[in-house]
């Protein structure tokens, strides 16, 4: 009896010891995967329209358009494709960096010095290029391409918040960094995982100027011809994008009602116009 009982008592002990060890190993694998999740070679499983590479190329297209109406048309074509399933709100927010309230504690000359350190290039050369060109993002892109400093042709960065490598999250982190070594490490992380084109537009987001010569009206006109007027009254991009997706901009009175319904501040010069529009709608319904 004793010989039979001992193995029975030993087996559960062995199992209880093995389970925590295997779970620890499993957790360890998860942790390493999370740390290494920023690998540029890892495939992006999200919508292709959430790709930051596509965002950068859209900016390039908009920049080449000379007419403002064509710039709006480019935005409209991008979001009106039959298979479009991207994050429209984040897309619009990124296309309007001037509306963004985030503050980045970094200036153009600091960026030059940081990338001179990252790329091991003479800072004087980059500074001279910047003085001649005036566009720090283009200087960094040109330096990457001329010196073959990037092996990435298309990064897997996304604008979607559910992604592992998110531009928005990277920008949020940058707002917290004030020391040179912290900023250099953060910029280096992006430089290793982005193509020169993508890095150029990431830096332009930091500078809050995409250099596409398109203002709020031109971008929002790409959503709907009434979207800009509605934005002037409510200043809520989420509401504007939601209405654009639902096709709720059919009537100017309904458009101007957005600000009142939300209870958000309305521009003084629009108050009388909104009241008249609402009154006309009320009379029409009687």
UniProtKB/TrEMBL annotation:
Coiled-coil regions, chain positions: none
UniProt xrefs under SUPFAM superfamilies: ATP-dependent DNA ligase DNA-binding domain
Biased composition (Basic and acidic residues): 1-23
DNA ligase ATP-dependent N-terminal domain boundaries: 51-223
Region annotation Disordered: where it falls in the sequence: 1-47
GO BP term, pick one: DNA repair
Gene3D superfamilies registered for this protein in UniProt: DNA ligase, ATP-dependent, N-terminal domain
InterPro entries from the UniProt entry: ATP-dep_DNA_ligase (IPR050191), DNA_ligase_ATP-dep_N (IPR012308), DNA_ligase_N_sf (IPR036599)
Superkingdom, taxonomy of origin: Eukaryota
Alphabetical keyword list: DNA damage, DNA recombination, DNA repair, Ligase
GO molecular function, one term: DNA ligase (ATP) activity
Pfam families linked: DNA_ligase_A_N
Family in the record: Belongs to the ATP-dependent DNA ligase family.
Protein's UniProt name: DNA ligase ATP-dependent N-terminal domain-containing protein
